[in-house]
Amino acid sequence: MPPSDWELVCGLEVHAHLKTRTKMFCRCELEYGGAENTHTCPVCLAHPGALPVPNERAIEHTIKLGLALGCEIAEHAVFARKNYFYPDLPKGYQISQYESPLCGPGALLVPTPDGDERVGIVRAHLEEDAAKTVHAGGATGRSVGADYSLVDFNRGGTPLIEIVSEPDLRSADEADRYIRLLRQTIVELGVSDAEMEKGTLRADVNVSVRKRGEEGFRPRWELKNMNSFTFIRRGIDAAIREQIAAYERGEEIEQSTYDYDADTDMLTVHRSKEEADDYRYFPEPDLVPIEPPRELVERLRGEIGELPADRIRRYAEHVGVESATELVSTGNDWKAEALAAEGVEWKAAAAIAMNRGDFLRENATALAQIVRANVTREALDEAFAAAASSPISADQYLARTAVSDESELAPVIDAIIAANPGQVATYRAGKEGVLGFFVGQVMRETGGKADPKVVNRLLLEKLRG
Ligand SMILES: [Zn+2]
């Protein structure tokens, strides 16, 4: 948090790969983890004379998300060429949208303990992703010190939605709540898997600071390609720290693009920020404007169910905003709802749904309620079986006696770590989300009886090795 006379001004540009079978402008199939350069064609490799054909499903996904964010849907949206040179962009330009995006201004209302926080949405537009550059050789495998780079064109042309927020975020906490809720909304609408670990959700984070009460904005730093919630928070905090220190030394801040290095908690200049002029945007001559029929827009509006923000507000009446947010953002809220419908008191229902063995052990009344509520095993089984991801059956929930003995758990954890070297490497490369995978494996192996606190501690010790 900044010292009290300074405040953060932060906006996010969130990119999500849209869930489609094929690429944005050609029929190449999208396959995560496919062998390099096996999904390419003259269009996505930019051979002369090849013409783009837009992916209708991607357009529908973009409209649907725009509607969920309360955006105006354009009657006339235009694709534009964004010109720049980089080896991952064979055409020498990216097809994007500039002056006339598909989705215009809207807002996401983020529930917080102090009421809704409004984060304005400037626009949501459709574009294609660039290919993937892999920096190889060298000591670190990073761009700095790499011997050479390889390009995988499988990703080139993947449909991408970019959601640009207003600079309405005033703390790393607010940014965190916003992007988590936005991600959950994207996932539930079915428009993207939005998995940061797989690179299907990334964010550019714009950070500046100003004195409280000051009008207007100071120059900003753009932290590029942030791919974990934790790094976003830490990157924002690092930028706040450095900018305030610079101002207090009497220096000026220059508008630039930065890379955040999670290992060192340092920011390094990526490049001086280019202005829109540098891209020489102009309307894409090979594509006609998108003019979505009103019937299509209304059909898509009708397909939107109860949005995560609305469910958080509904559950918050029973369990408070923090727990409600956690329930929804982990996709466990429907379990709590099923239990509550069976007569289980909401706080206990939430604890069971979140697999909070600790809460239940410490809350004899909650357990008593569950027993009194006469929840049948069948009802619970049915509820939990519907969640393919749940590793634990209702039987195990009810009969549960937690195993917290380290000597019993350590060999199980060792075996799981030994059997999953890939996930271990991913975790050690900074993708902390993989921890959930390991916890899940331990729970599966122990029939759900392991004490989550002990499991977490042991896993962290061993994974950090
Ligand atoms: Zn292609």
Q: How far is the first residue's CA from the last residue's CA?
A: 31 Å
Say which molecules are bound, naming each kind only once: zinc ion
Q: What is the number of beta strands?
A: 13
Number of helices: 15
Which strand order does the major sheet show? Answer: 4-5-8-1-9-10-11-12
Instruction: Tell me the structural class.
Output: alpha+beta
Give the helix proportion (percent range).
Answer: 25-40%
H/E element order: EHEEEEEEEHEEHEEEHHHHHHHHHHHH
User: Unreliable segments (pLDDT under 50, ≥5 consecutive)?
Assistant: 386-395, 397-401
What number is the mean pLDDT? 86
- Bin the strand percentage: 15-25%
Main sheet overview: 8 strands, mixed
Rg over alpha carbons: 24 Å
The dominant shape is globular
How would you characterize this protein structure?
It is a single chain. Strand 11 (256-261) and strand 12 (266-272) form a beta hairpin. The chain contains 15 helices and 13 strands. Helix 12 crosses helix 14 (434-445) and helix 13 runs antiparallel to helix 14 (434-445). The chain is an alpha+beta fold and 465 residues long. The protein has an 8-stranded mixed β-sheet with strand order 4-5-8-1-9-10-11-12. The chain has helices at residues 56-68, 172-189, 229-248, 294-302, 308-329, 333-341, 346-353, 357-362, 364-372, 377-385, 394-398, 406-419, 421-428, 434-445, 452-464; strands at 6-17, 79-83, 93-97, 106-112, 115-128, 132-136, 148-152, 159-165, 201-211, 221-226, 256-261, 266-272, 282-283. 38% of the residues lie in helices and 20% in strands. The structure holds zinc ion (ZN). The site of zinc ion has 8 residues, from loops.
